[in-house]
């Protein structure tokens, strides 16, 4: 309680803003506690009151004052084609802003599948060359928190860990926090007994669907998707895609938009 709050600069590249939408719905911890008591969210062009020159001045001031001590959170990614002209922030390519702010940060959090993997804007043929953050920022630790979007409590959980222990959370080989991405959806799915018993939904609205059978034959990617949806769930633990009757599309996995796509498969 006596420690100064850690400054967080939250940048937005090519993205849809739903990572922020998810973040502001965190219930444990409550997002207002995170923003008002735990971190100092000094720059976030979606959530901040300031705009224009005033906003950019804050960015500059925090970078100067907290050199090496602030966290850079990135939602979205930089497009590299045509000198980055597909994403312009304050009159400059987003790539410039990203590299500048990353140069003095302590660590980078890559929010969501856009920042972690590229996501739908990087789908073949990727006309803007949308590029994941770790391929551009190579001299800082990059913590990937994938998902489209990530679960709110996973986002605030990662921040809470970093503030409480003053270190990065243990990561897997792909740079994802093990505590949330150490298991597959399939490992803890409540429909798993039906999978093991060979009871599958064969078509939408069939008898198996009404009985809540396994969605594997409908293209569910739970067996190859690392995320916390089947344990933490969404909307304060209420549900997750499979519980709503739709298979997992693997939204936290690399290339989910191109590779064996759920929608191609069905
Ligand atoms: Fe939106 Fe998904 Fe990108 Fe997050 S990861 S900004 S939810 S497209
Ligand atoms: Fe696995 Fe998907 Fe079936 Fe759940 S619904 S048991 S995640 S294949
Ligand atoms: Fe995404 Fe699959 Fe979870 S689609 S939200 S990783 S259940």
Automatic annotation (TrEMBL):
Annotated binding of [4Fe-4S] cluster 1, by residue: 16, 19, 114, 148
Q: Where is the NADH:ubiquinone oxidoreductase-like 20kDa subunit domain?
A: 16-161
What does UniProt give as GO cellular component? [Ni-Fe] hydrogenase complex; ferredoxin hydrogenase complex; plasma membrane
Which GO biological process annotations does it have?
anaerobic respiration
User: Where, by residue number, does [4Fe-4S] cluster 2 bind?
Assistant: 186, 189, 214, 220
Q: Name one GO molecular function term.
A: 4 iron, 4 sulfur cluster binding
Reactions mediated catalytically: H2 + A = AH2
* Record's keyword terms, sorted: 3Fe-4S, 4Fe-4S, Cell membrane, Iron, Iron-sulfur, Membrane, Metal-binding, Oxidoreductase, Signal
Per UniProt, where does [3Fe-4S] cluster bind? 229, 248, 251
Compartments it resides in = Cell membrane
Q: Which cofactor does it need?
A: [4Fe-4S] cluster; [3Fe-4S] cluster
Domain called Cytochrome-c3 hydrogenase C-terminal: residue spans: 181-262
EC numbers listed for it are 1.12.99.6
Q: How does it assemble?
A: Heterodimer of a large and a small subunit.
Which family does the record assign?
Answer: Belongs to the [NiFe]/[NiFeSe] hydrogenase small subunit family.
**Name used for this protein in its record:** hydrogenase (acceptor)
Tell me the part of the parent protein that is shown.
47 to 312 of 364
